[in-house]
Fold this protein.
Amino acid sequence: MIPLLYDTIIVLGPADRPPSGDIGVQVMQHTKIRAWYTSPPPIEQMLLLPEGPELASTLDFVIFSGGPMSPLSGDHLSTLCDIGQYIGSTEIGIIPCILPDRDTWNYFEWHPAIECEMQHVAEDIYELIIPYKKDLRWIRPHPERAFEPYFKQNRETGEWRTKDLFRQHPKKPKSWRFYVGVLI
């Protein structure tokens, strides 16, 4: 998706090995990259290598997904470059977010065009709800294969209940962090 929307080139690592911090370092030693989209383990591994932090500081930003990043790694990385995460689903794809401030790297801020709802569930816990908006078809290159099917099957509600739970930042009302726990 990125090369379709931006003037950019994607660099992929070797197909015969999983991504790792070592591969990230090797790539960055051979070519200038501005951003790294990854799961947390490769960037966490890179930060442990002698040249890792210096190379990370040359990035404009890191975007991670697929699980949480350790607070120690995220806090360290946020002193070197901008860092954020993305969330998505099979049903509707990536939910657009705004890159957070460095001190809130582990929070999401939903892009206002999506008009996400945060529905109160219990105490200080909220569920992310995505409303159907026909005028947002532009964010998907093939809406008939991405956004649309889910909402066509759920016309009665006109929304997608993600079942993902969040807590609001105590001082930044537009910032939300995953809630990991069990509701009783």
In short: Strands lie at 35-38, 61-64, 82-85, 87-89, 93-95, 117-122, 125-131, 159-168, 176-178. Confidence is low (pLDDT under 50) at residues 143-147. The chain has two domains: 1-85, 112-184. The first strand starts at residue 35 and ends at 38.
